[in-house]
Design goal:
Order of helices and strands: EEHHHH
Shape: elongated
Largest sheet: 2 strands, antiparallel
Number of domains: 1
Strand content: under 5%
Keywords: Membrane, Transmembrane, Transmembrane helix
Transmembrane segments: 24-45, 51-71
Strand order of the largest sheet: 1-2
Radius of gyration: 24 Å
Protein name: DUF4133 domain-containing protein
Number of helices: 4
Structural class: mainly alpha
Pfam family, one: DUF4133
Distance between the termini: 70 Å
Length: 108
């Protein structure tokens, strides 16, 4: 009953596992570990399994859906580029040309 999963390790190609690319595999793994820890904490606190199971299953489904959607939408480096582009200002505003006229050019 051992399942064999193929991992694509081509040259200059991202690692792909079950449709997830590159860092999204790690995002899913960290999310699942956090769900496992939260399940254990809630169980130890004495919360009923009838409450815990739907919450954990719902959060797990949302996690898998979100990570898969991000992986397909952005690809290997797309999410990093998206956040980098969002952190750039839309425009620069200068009240005078003094900044540019006072620049000293280096002589080589």
């Amino acid at each position: 009953m051992a399942s064999i999963y193929q991992i694509n390790k081509g040259v200059s190609k991202p690692i792909v596992f079950k449709g997830l690319k590159a860092q999204y595999i790690a995002y899913l793994a960290v999310g699942l570990v956090l769900l496992l820890i939260s399940f254990a904490i809630l169980y130890i606190l004495g919360v009923s399994l009838l409450v815990i199971m739907p919450v954990i299953l719902g959060l797990g489904s949302a996690l898998i859906f979100t990570v898969t959607r991000l992986s397909h939408k952005f690809g290997k480096y797309g999410l990093l580029k998206y956040f980098a582009k969002r952190s750039l200002p839309h425009y620069l505003k200068f009240n005078s040309r003094k900044l540019f006229t006072s620049l000293i050019t280096e002589k080589r």
